[in-house]
Amino acid sequence: MRKPRDFDAELKALEDKAKDLKNRKVQQLGELVISTGADALTADELVGALIVLAETKDIAKREAWAKRGAAFFQNRARRSAPAPDRDAGGAQPQSDSTQSPSGTAGAA
What we know:
The protein is mainly alpha-helical. 60% of the residues lie in helices and 0% in strands. The chain has three helices and no strands. The longest helix has 30 residues, at 7-36. The N and C termini lie far apart (66 Å).
């Protein structure tokens, strides 16, 4: 005879996993805010900028923002990758180019 499944234990394990994933998502969002320098904004400014972003229907603007975000992550990946042939301090100036203040919350 086959061993019966413990549905309660499986459901509890799935709930725990969902909770862990939600916590990790929140942590990663916080890390993203900090790594972009957006933690220097007030909560009201940050929420306002996010609302403007969410309400924006202009596809060209959204694509430009997506390209800029992808470039941000590519630059971070390049800086964190080991580079045995060059000095580690040489990659630092690139981070300033991703944090230009153009057109974020001011358009609200």
